[in-house]
Amino acid sequence: MPVLHLGATVLCMHAGNAVPTMPFPRVSVSAQPVVQVTTPYVIAACSLSTSSGPFCATGQWVVGATRVLAGGLPLAIVGGTALCVATGTGMQAVASQTRVLAT
């Protein structure tokens, strides 16, 4: 699975744009820092934000690479599992670099 980086396009399940707040700057892919599974994401423009119920505000990967680490922590990967706070739904990576793979 491709490794996620700062420039990857990640969306919540309601099409809100998710951006990592603290990518790992010591390792880069495609000239952009990688994202560890512990990196929190901020989500903007979740389509549920116009309703009176909860909406996706933040998210984080909970399952990532098992064999590739950066700074001692697993990397976030395209096929990993993520969780959004407030709704309990996931996030999905829709575009990322494809040269660096991790399992």
Please give the structural blueprint.
Layout: E1 9-12, E2 17-20, E3 24-29, E4 32-34, E5 40-44, E6 58-63, E7 69-70, E8 73-74, E9 81-85, E10 91-95
Antiparallel strand pairs: 1-2, 1-10, 2-5, 3-4, 5-6, 6-9, 7-8
Order of helices and strands: EEEEEEEEEE
Helix content: under 10%
Biggest pleated sheet: 6 strands, antiparallel
Secondary-structure content class: mainly beta
Please report which band the strand proportion falls in: under 5%, 5-15%, 15-25%, 25-35%, 35-45% or over 45%.
35-45%
**What is the radius of gyration computed over CA atoms, rounded to a whole number of angstroms?**
13 Å
Q: Alpha-carbon distance between the termini?
A: 6 Å
Q: pLDDT average, as an integer?
A: 95
As residue ranges, the low-confidence spans are: none
- Number of E-state strands: 10
* Tertiary shape: elongated
Give the spatial strand order of the biggest sheet: 9-6-5-2-1-10
Alpha plus pi helix count: 0
